[in-house]
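Intended use. Records like the one below are meant for learning the mapping from a protein sequence to its folded structure. Do not use them to infer anything beyond what is encoded.
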Amino acid sequence: MVRMSRQVNSKTQIRVCSSGDENVLSLIGQATFLEAFAGVLDGQSILAHCAGAHSIERYRSWLADSRYKLWLAEISPGNAPVGYMVVSPPDLPLLNLSDRDLELKRIYVFSRFQGQGLGKRLLQKAITEAHIYSAERLLLGVYKHNNAAIGFYTRMGFHKVGTRKFNMGGLECDDYIMELALASESVHLENIL
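Structure written out for the chain above:
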């Protein structure tokens, strides 16, 4: 087995996705979800979840919907995908949802590329997009036992505002709902970098 160093001396770039990226999004979505939750959640439930939630058709429909924006993080040389993100209209069980809210539906980076600022760079793109749409809040759902992700979101200025039940391939999981208030003067891009 070849062991790879955690420190990567390559360059990552982030690009907006377009029609034709659905295959790579499906692949990176399934791979990063499996990496994040293998050994944490039931394997068959993970696979069932990936078959639907990360299908080529799901990403194709999001790419065709102007309310969704998707990004890929790719590494050079070779432009292999190492992370991705989806921003969408909110689909969360909050009583105070408004048309001025956006949801950070997915943000995943392979563990080998974490801790190098790539997640922050992706989040910066989401915040920029939210400002373009004059969004007041950026919302997300996160598995309540995913302490690393919760820590990242908290460091980036998110805080808990609710909970939800999330069906992950037939397994009911408890999630926190977190928000980043964008209307306040305290949220600036330079604060997250």
